[in-house]
Write a structure and sequence with these properties.
Blueprint (H helix, E strand, L loop, with lengths): L7 H6 L5 E3 L8 H9 L3 E5 L5 H12 L7 E5 L5 H9 L4 E5 L7 H7 L2 E6 L2 H10 L3 E5 L5 E2 L6 H12 L4 E4 L5 H9 L4 E4 L1 H4 L8 H9 L5 E4 L11 E4 L2 H8 L14 E5 L4 E3 L10 E3 L21 H24 L2
Parallel strand pairs: 1-2, 1-9, 2-3, 3-4, 4-5, 5-6, 6-8, 8-9
Antiparallel strand pairs: 7-11, 10-11, 12-13, 12-14
Length: 337
């Protein structure tokens, strides 16, 4: 069976498979992170909203299930100095940054010997990140699910970023759900891939069964790029499935935030009674009960390639083996010309 060679990314992160599990806020679990790591990839925890106690607990639970490296993601829309301190004190040595300027955080990561990743949306941002000292650049294409930073598609973005920052490794994100996508990303010059939507439909994630089933039904044309579900993260653009909240807003003429139809309505509640409000960006976790259809249903354009629910470790192996087989076949075809 064909196997992927170790890329620069593998060497830097001490992984055997250049696949990174996206830090899916609200539905990521220690079980998911550990399963990806145990399969040879890199799991990332979304720590942007966790308390110090929650961070320590999540790190401990993950370490109890894997002896492999794992990382944490911090969204820089909010100040993350305290959370970074706690992560480094807990021994996490892979830190991913998103949605902001990492400059004020890098002295701490460098002093701790941590590897840093930065998600970018264009080549100029990539150059600046590397100039600041970022170790690995994540090129996030417009196709990506969840919160989306840029407006360039993965196919155009990845080679531009690779050309801009080589030999710094580049990770391709957005629209990748199988071996074909991974092979394409590696052919574009990426050293690895970043996947989120595919891992939602793994039993280790905390996605609600309704959410999983909706993704299985969805087509690649069902997602919309918008800044609608932004009450808790204002003006943040994201990609999710079109739903009644989206359609009602369109029918009302796309009104501004303070005039959106149904603003302030309670759509669901968490187990502890906390309300889930329309236009907030809550992920559809098992902790929520209510009107799921009207909430943000995060998904990338690759959702049309998600056809089953499969353990995260199997997803890692299947995607890696599929990419290796494609690249081996293409190599044979090229050499025969």
């Amino acid at each position: 069976m064909a196997a992927l060679g170790r890329t620069t990314l593998c060497e830097m992160l001490d992984v055997t498979v250049p696949i990174i599990q996206a830090p899916m806020g609200g539905i990521c679990t220690p079980e998911l992170v550990a399963a990806v790591c145990n399969a040879g990839g890199l799991g990332l925890h979304p720590m942007s909203w966790a308390t110090p106690e929650e961070i320590r607990h999540l790190v401990e639970r993950t370490r109890a299930q894997t002896n492999r490296p794992f990382g944490a993601n911090l969204v820089l829309y909010w100040d993350q100095q305290e959370r970074l301190d706690v992560l480094l004190e807990a021994g996490v040595r892979i830190i991913s940054f998103f949605w902001g300027d990492p400059a004020d955080y890098l002295a701490k990561t460098k002093a701790a010997g941590a590897i840093t990743l930065m998600t970018v949306g264009n080549a100029d941002e990539a150059r600046r990140a590397v100039d600041l000292g970022i170790d690995i650049v994540v090129a996030q294409g417009y196709e990506a699910g969840g919160h989306v930073w840029g407006e360039v598609t993965t196919m155009a973005l990845v080679p531009a970023v690779v050309d801009a920052v080589s030999p710094v490794p580049v990770v391709a994100a957005g629209g990748i759900a199988d071996g074909r996508g991974m092979a394409a990303a590696l052919a574009l010059g990426a050293s690895g891939v970043w996947m989120g939507t595919r891992f939602i439909n793994s039993p280790e994630s905390d996605a609600h069964d309704w959410y999983r089933d909706r993704l299985l039904e969805a087509k690649e044309t069902d997602t919309v790029h918008n800044a609608l579900f932004d009450e808790d993260w204002q003006d943040a653009t994201l990609r999710c499935l079109a739903n009644s909240t989206w359609r009602n807003w369109l029918a009302a003429g796309r009104p501004p935030r303070d005039q959106r139809p149904g603003a302030g309505e309670i759509l669901a509640r968490r187990r502890n009674g906390e309300p889930v409000i329309r236009y907030f960006g809550n992920a559809l976790s098992t902790d929520i009960a209510g009107d799921f259809e009207a909430m943000a249903i995060y998904a990338g354009q690759c959702v049309g390639l998600v056809h089953d629910i499969k353990p995260a470790g199997e997803i890692v192996r299947e995607v890696a083996e599929g990419a290796a087989q494609i690249l081996a076949r293409l190599g044979t075809q090229t050499s025969a010309r």
